[in-house]
Each structure stands twice: as C-alpha cells, then as structure tokens.
Write a structure and sequence with these properties.
The structure is a single chain. This protein is α/β, with parallel strands linked by helices. It has 5 helices and 7 strands. Strand 6 and strand 7 form a beta hairpin.
Length: about 180
C-alpha cells in the first residue's frame, strides 16, 4: 500500500503540470485568422446545387428520403427561413455564391460515416473560394435514422455558417486602439 500512494502522488503532479503547460500555451496562442470580409458584408446570395452522389438508392437500399436534390432543397429552405441574406436567382446579382453538395463516402451502410455535406462560399465576381464547410453524415441501419443524421449534419452546416457570419467579439488589441 505504501508504494501506491507515492506513485499516485507523482502521477497526479505530472498530470497537473502537463495541464498547466497546455493551458499556458493555449492562452499565448495567436488569435484566429480573419474571416474574409465579403462573407459578413454580403447581402445577396445565389445558392448553387453542386449535386453529388445519388441519395436515392445504393445496392437497392434507399440511402435517404428526399431524392438527389435534398441537400439543395434543405439548405435553400434554411437560408430562406434565416432571412440573413436575400436569395437571388443569378450569380451575377449576388455578393456571394453558396455551393452545396453531397458526396457518398461509404456504400456499406454499416460504417459510422455514410457521406458528407459540403458548403463552399464563393465570391462570384472573382470565382475565388472564400470558405469551405464540410460536415460528415453518420451512417445508420434504419432509413429513419439516416434521415435524422442527414438533418443533423445539415443543421450543423447552417449553424457553422451562422457563426461564421456573426461579428467577432472585440479583442484586447482592438479595444486598446
């Protein structure tokens, strides 16, 4: 019993030391790089359906309900209900283009990842990619669970876009200027 206590004490001290070093390194880290100004400044958006793998069937198994345009339709509806951007029907009229796509990652339906949703934010005037958001969709045996996992991934893409467009809080450096 006597040898276990000193060993446990030494292990505890070592772990605490590592935690303090990691915390100190994180607090000294560089601030995050800026988000391109066009993303926050944009008011008009064109949504592009980049498509991807079929969402209908894989080896006679329905992958998701909603057909191949489900990612586009759900993302378009989410953007419309958010109301942050005016949705336009032509990229020429847009400040930003949002390109939504779907890629089937696994056709086995038993692995944890079934596919991925990808949202690319593009400056339509320069055709430069400003940002890329990718969210993986977990696989499931039951169709209802695959649909639920798809919806969760889409909600995460939309939430990440909303966070990206939110104004960043002032830093200590900007408060001093």
């Amino acid at each position: 019993m006597q040898t276990i206590k000193p060993l446990a004490f030494c292990l505890s001290v070592a772990i605490l030391g590592i935690v303090q070093v990691v915390a100190a390194q994180q607090s000294k880290g560089e601030p995050p790089a800026p988000v391109p100004a066009q993303i926050a400044a944009g008011r008009k958006v064109f949504i592009s359906n980049a498509g991807g793998a079929s969402l209908e069937t894989v080896i006679d198994e329905t992958v998701f309900n909603g057909g191949p345009d489900r990612p586009y339709n759900e993302f378009y509806a989410a953007m419309k209900s958010w109301g942050r951007y005016e949705l336009v029907s032509s990229p020429a009229d847009a400040d930003l283009a949002f390109e939504i796509s779907w890629a089937l990652t696994d056709t086995g339906l038993r692995l944890p990842v079934l596919g991925q949703l990808r949202l690319v934010v593009i400056d339509p005037k320069t055709r430069i990619t400003l940002w890329n958001l990718t969210e993986y969709v977990r696989g499931a045996l039951l169709l209802g669970n695959r649909d639920k996992n798809f919806d969760e991934a889409m909600n995460t893409v939309v939430a990440r876009l909303k966070a990206l467009t939110a104004p960043s809080p002032p830093t200590a450096d900007s408060a001093q200027k």
